[in-house]
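testing teh design pipeline on a random one, pls ignore if ur not involved
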């Protein structure tokens, strides 16, 4: 039988253990993240960089299955449907065909990478991009995909994307407007998409892309300004062109999906020498256990460069 002294000692130990529980759970969570293998995906963009005839999504799925990755990230513009047209019965049939193909290949579809711009001073243009994004959410829902990549959009003052890249992603603000107004339009546009995202169970992954999210501060301004479980950060490892690691650390706690760039054969617009072991550590330190989707952006034949990239990522995230 427990005497009074034993009882008090036991109670004290229990109280101390309870007091330590939050810290213990945080440590256990990070330890579990370190043990849990990251799931790899291949972005269909790895096989098509907009400059040649489209590579069919089904072809990329077959190649991804042969390489033994867990999922694919589908580039919306690479699909065999009109990007801007309404989603009609023929489009839905095509999406169901892709979903079936992925299942037969033993693959998940972890993301649909879409394009839009919410940096629009004209209300009708902002609404057009909101409606386009809602359609993209429906596309993901039809595919059984839990996430779409979204962009803030940019000012559009560069002549073209090549000029934007020559200027390291920096472009002047539209004359007559301010950066604060751009953030206001962007946040309004995203907020208008969130009810549809919640209805379909699709997370909006906002990428550190060109435009307002070109810097970690810009991305976090939006993510911290909108409270919703259906919005998170999409970390693109190749979109911080200078001193990337401290910037990736800043956005890591908000990251729900990662796109990992490689540049075999030199990049289409620029080349970065990224330390993926360091990036893996950054993600492990915040307990990230989601997908890492390869975006091979080099000029080398993807049938050679993609397998090398998968091997690189597997080793880094092991």
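output:
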């Amino acid at each position: 039988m427990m005497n009074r002294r034993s009882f008090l000692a036991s109670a004290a130990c229990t109280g101390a253990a309870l007091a330590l529980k939050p810290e213990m759970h945080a440590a256990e969570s990070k330890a579990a993240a370190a043990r849990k293998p990251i799931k790899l995906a291949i972005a269909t963009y790895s096989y098509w960089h907009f400059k040649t005839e489209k590579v069919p999504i089904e072809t990329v799925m077959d190649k991804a299955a042969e390489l033994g990755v867990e999922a694919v990230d589908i580039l919306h513009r690479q699909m065999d449907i009109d990007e801007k047209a309404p989603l009609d019965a023929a489009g839905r049939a095509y999406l169901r065909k892709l979903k079936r193909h992925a299942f037969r290949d033993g693959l998940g579809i972890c993301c649909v990478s879409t394009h839009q711009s919410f940096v629009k001073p004209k209300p009708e243009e902002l609404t057009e991009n909101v409606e386009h994004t809602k359609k993209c959410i429906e596309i993901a829902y039809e595919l059984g995909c839990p996430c779409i990549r979204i962009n803030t959009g940019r000012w559009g003052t560069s002549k073209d994307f090549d000029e934007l890249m020559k200027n390291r992603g920096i472009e002047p603000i539209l004359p007559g407007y301010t950066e604060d107004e751009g953030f206001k339009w962007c946040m309004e546009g995203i907020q208008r998409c969130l009810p549809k995202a919640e209805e379909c169970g699709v997370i909006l992954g906002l990428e550190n892309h060109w435009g307002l999210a070109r810097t970690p501060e810009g991305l976090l301004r939006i993510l911290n300004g909108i409270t919703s479980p259906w919005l998170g950060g999409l970390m693109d490892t190749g979109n911080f062109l200078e001193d990337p690691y401290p910037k990736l650390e800043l956005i890591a706690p908000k990251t729900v999906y990662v796109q990992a760039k490689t540049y075999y054969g030199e990049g289409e617009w620029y080349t970065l020498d990224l330390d993926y072991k360091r990036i893996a550590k950054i993600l492990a330190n915040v307990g990230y256990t989601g997908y890492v989707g390869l975006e091979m952006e080099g000029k080398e034949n993807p049938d050679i460069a993609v397998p090398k990239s998968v091997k690189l990522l597997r080793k880094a995230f092991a």
